[in-house]
Write a structure and sequence with these properties.
The structure holds two protein chains of two kinds.
Chain A lengths: L2 H78 L9 H28 L2 H5 L2 H16 L2 E6 L3 H5 L4 H22 L3 E8 L3 E8 L15 H12 L3 E6 L5 E8 L4
Helix pairs in contact in A: 1-2, 4-6, 6-7
Chain B lengths: L3 H10 L10 H8 L3 H6 L8 H24 L6 H21 L4 H25 L5 H27 L8 H26 L4 H27 L16
Helix pairs in contact in B: 1-9, 2-9, 4-5, 5-6, 5-7, 6-7, 7-8, 8-9
Classes of the chains: A alpha+beta, B mainly alpha.
Chain lengths: 259, 241
């Protein structure tokens, strides 16, 4: 090989090496950037959800501590009306009774809204009682009987999961039951909750209409996407099994600790 | 940019012919390295980071050339200084170029390229064998990488800001760096091959490169001389904007 041919060969080799370095640098930069971008997106979504929950908790607190107290005071005022020793006319008395009933209904509705906005039971009693209460609410509101089964392991039940994880599971359960009420067309469904030392499992099953579960996200409502997003943000996963006519099962598996 | 005297000296060191005096133009080219440093005096301490690094790059060239010339007085081999300094200078230029990237991915890629570049050079050291052939062996790789980086920065930034590119420091510096590294891609290996048979031709090529180096230093000095960009009064996402 002549010296100039050797030089050309060497230049070619160096050019290839240069290209390899450039491509490696750009590929690594792309991967790192993607990871950072995903992390940023995730943190943003996490903060957004946290802010959302905080806002809901604030509204629930306001409704409970202010509006409901005022309702209670109104009811009390009506109880006392027209004052000691004074007897109201019959027509007025009927109207006051009707008014009292209306205000009591308003109180029930406000309490329900407050509970739905932020289930205080999670903070006070834990996830399982909050889910049982949710099931009763759904039954009361829709007539669908929700059978709750607690399959928690002793090590899981002894240490309650962190508040935000419990709230997340509660929201998924809320959405899954809303879907049952809205789409399943059944009189009964089952909810299973299982706490272990490592994870929280929630399963909502109905034997209703079902749908084509292997469809892509296209055509799905925000509910399923929202549930999946909540599970993903908690490093968990959401699985949906469904076939038309064969019912639906929604299963969320959420780790107790963030990875 | 720098090293023209020493490049020729390195090339001549491979020639069996007796060494002759080095022409004045090569000294002029070497001295022209100080032009960007003088241009920086216009702005004092307010220089943006990229310009500071460009000046540091120039100073690194002046320092390594000075050290080599000083060492040349003794009988010891002084080419190891180049072997140590060139990768550092090129790493500095990669860092400077990264500061001019407008997209986060490009910026990150340039910064990742620095350790990759240094690791590759270390891997190439066994193929060098002799300090006199260091530039011949690794020069094309180093120059090609920096040439690609400078051209990429020039084209990408010019494309995203086609109007009035001459206002920007990156335009002049990357133009100068492209010319400089363009010459460095092919000259050392071919000079090493042709030195025995066509010494005059090689010298002529180096004289031509000396003129080009003066032009390169003028371009870089022009970039440093550019007016400073207006200082930002707030972050991009500031709600006050």
């Amino acid at each position: 090989m002549s010296p100039s041919a050797g030089a050309f060969w060497w230049l070619f080799l160096m050019a290839t090496l240069t290209l390899v370095v450039i491509l490696t640098a750009f590929a690594a930069a792309l991967i790192i950037y993607q990871r950072r971008f995903l992390q940023m997106h995730r943190t943003f979504a996490d903060n957004l959800l946290a802010a959302h929950e905080e806002e809901r908790a604030w509204v629930a607190r306001e409704v409970h501590d202010d509006a409901l107290q005022r309702v209670a005071m109104l009811v009390h005022e009506l109880d006392e009306w027209p004052g000691p020793g004074a007897a109201p006319a019959n027509a007025v008395s009927d109207r006051v009774a009707a008014l009292r009933e209306e205000i009591e209904d308003l109180g029930v509705m406000l309490r329900r809204i407050a509970h739905r906005m932020h289930p205080a039971l999670i903070d006070h009693a834990g996830l399982v009682p909050a889910l049982q209460s949710l099931a009763m609410d759904v039954t009361r509101a829709s007539g669908i009987r929700v059978e709750v089964t607690d399959q928690s392991q002793p090590d899981g039940a002894s240490a309650p999961p962190a508040g935000e994880r419990s709230l997340l599971v509660y929201r998924i359960a809320q959405e899954a039951l809303r879907n049952v009420v809205k789409h399943a067309g059944v009189a009964q469904c089952d909810m299973l909750v299982a706490l272990s030392a490592a994870s929280i499992e929630l399963r909502v099953t109905d034997q209703g209409k079902g749908f084509v579960a292997d469809d892509s996200a296209k055509g799905r409502g925000l509910g399923l996407i929202g549930m999946a997003e909540r599970a993903r943000l908690a490093d968990g996963r959401l699985e949906v099994w469904s076939r038309p006519g064969n019912g639906t099962t929604v299963r969320a598996l959420i780790p107790r600790q963030a990875h | 940019m720098g090293g023209i005297l020493l490049d020729l000296y390195a090339a001549l060191s491979q020639s069996p012919a007796p060494k002759r005096d080095i022409p004045l133009i090569l000294y002029a080219a070497a001295l022209s390295q100080t032009l960007p440093v003088f241009a920086a005096l216009r702005h004092g301490r307010r220089l943006p980071a990229a310009r500071v690094w460009t000046i540091a790059w120039c100073v690194a060239f002046i320092a390594s050339d000075g050290m080599q010339l000083w060492w040349r007085g003794s009988t010891a081999n002084n080419l190891w200084i180049r072997e140590a300094a060139t990768p550092i200078q090129n790493a500095m230029m990669l860092w400077t170029l990264s500061l001019w990237q407008r997209h986060a991915v490009s910026r990150l890629a340039f910064r990742i390229a620095i350790p990759l570049f240094l690791v590759t050079l270390v891997a190439l050291i066994p193929t060098v064998g002799d300090t006199r052939t260091f530039d011949t062996v690794t020069g094309p790789f180093q120059a090609l990488l920096l040439l690609a980086g400078a051209l990429y920065t020039l084209v990408r930034n010019a494309a995203s800001d086609p109007e009035g590119v001459t206002r920007y420091d990156w335009f002049w510096v990357t133009l100068g760096a492209s010319l400089y590294f363009g010459f460095r891609v092919a000259l050392p290996p071919f000079a090493a091959i042709l030195m025995n048979s066509h010494e005059e031709l090689v010298k002529l090529a180096y004289y031509f490169r000396a003129w080009a180096d003066i032009g390169v230093n003028l371009l870089i000095a022009r970039g440093i001389w550019c007016p400073l960009p207006p200082a930002r009064s707030g972050g991009f996402f500031s709600w006050r904007r």
